[in-house]
Specification:
This protein is α/β, with parallel strands linked by helices. It contains eleven helices and twelve strands. It starts with a strand and ends in a 7-residue tail after the last strand. The chain binds adenosine-5'-diphosphate and magnesium ion. Adenosine-5'-diphosphate (ADP) binds next to strand 1, strand 2 and helix 1.
């Protein structure tokens, strides 16, 4: 599979009170055309920052992002705006990401207006098409305001807005985290349908491995700004190589109430990204850590075919 998106040594640091906050450090990843890559890790590990840095909404401190052969990190102005149409972002909080004073018809049409589709009839036709695709009745919704809709419906509207320019890559940043459990599956199914219908490539961000499992071809696990492990979904679930991946897997709730929940992740809070541990950043919570882990940053290396882990003592 050829990479549509290539992220090389991506680093993003924020300045916080005169100190550097290491949000994303030296992350390299590829997403193949037509692939869904799941990106998981605890809240605060840098997932959203990475997503925004891919789109150049936050300029990285270092590294490169290449989309379909064009280096986004070197573009700006009009050239960047043109490329951005091919990449879209869907946010966690659908209600907050819709302008409360504008009608659904106007919200979904806005990307068309911005990109210069001047013909009103053409705009309306495309809005109707994409609303139908996400399962909404255009006649019923176009004239209404966001507050008249549920969270799930608002996420459908956000998805329609993201798809109206027919992008190639969609970054879904925790698209179901803010929704009721009962409607999460509907939105995940919708994203799968949209992926097929529009031939999309997805970078699917979640803090929960269980959510990405259903939709991802491969999964990348992040911890405190660094990549721990990347591999095919089935393989990573069956044979995690990084101790952190194993811990995340154990923390997935079991539907059976008589089964005791395994290792509690909260048992060790992640350290601050303002002052990350030396060497392997996971070492302060890792049962396998030794002196090497404190001294040497582990490089990502291939543990099994297609499965990579950044660990001095991988499971296996
Ligand atoms: P995630 O999406 O995985 O929860 P984020 O990318 O939002 O993580 O955040 C990564 C780290 O960067 C966190 O420590 C967060 O507090 C910090 N951070 C995020 N955005 C900013 C910002 N604009 N300024 C300073 N620090 C930020
Ligand atoms: Mg986030």
């Amino acid at each position: 599979m050829t990479a549509l998106l290539s992220i090389e040594n991506l680093t993003v640091e924020y300045a916080v009170g005169g100190k550097a906050l290491f949000a994303v450090s030296d992350v390299s990843l590829e997403v193949g055309r037509g692939e869904t890559l799941g990106l998981v890790g605890e809240s605060g590990c840098g997932k959203s920052t990475l997503g925004r840095a891919v789109l150049q909404l936050r300029r990285p401190t270092g590294g490169r992002v290449t989309f379909d052969g064009t280096e986004l990190t070197r573009l700006d102005g009009e050239a960047l705006r043109l490329m951005r149409r091919r990449l879209q972002l869907i946010f966690q909080d659908p209600i907050a990401s819709l302008n409360p004073r504008r009608s659904i018809g106007d919200i979904v049409a806005e990307p068309l207006v911005i990109t210069g589709v001047v013909d009103r009839g053409e705009r309306e036709r495309r809005v109707r098409d994409v609303l139908a695709a996400v399962g909404l009745d255009a006649d019923l919704v176009m004239g209404r305001l966001p507050h008249e809709f549920s969270g799930g419906q608002c996420q459908r509207i956000c998805i329609a807005r993201a798809l109206i320019l027919e992008p190639e890559l969609v970054i879904c940043d925790e698209p179901v985290s803010a929704l009721d459990v009962s409607i999460r599956a509907q939105i995940l199914n919708l994203l799968e349908d949209m992926k097929r219908r529009y031939g999309l490539t997805l970078l699917f961000i979640a803090h929960d491995l269980a959510v990405v499992k259903a939709v991802s071809d491969r999964i990348a696990v992040m911890y405190l700004g660094r990549l721990c492990e990347v591999g095919p979904t089935e393989q990573l679930f069956a044979r995690p190589a990084h101790p952190y991946t194993a811990l995340l897997l154990e923390a997935i709730p079991v539907p059976d109430p008589t089964v005791k929940p395994a290792a509690n992740l909260a048992a060790g809070e992640p350290p601050s990204p303002l002052d990350p541990p030396s060497g392997c950043r996971f070492r302060t919570r890792c049962p396998r850590a030794d002196q090497t882990c404190a001294d040497v940053v582990p490089e990502l290396r291939e543990i099994a075919v297609g499965q990579f882990a950044a660990c001095h003592h991988p499971l296996g």
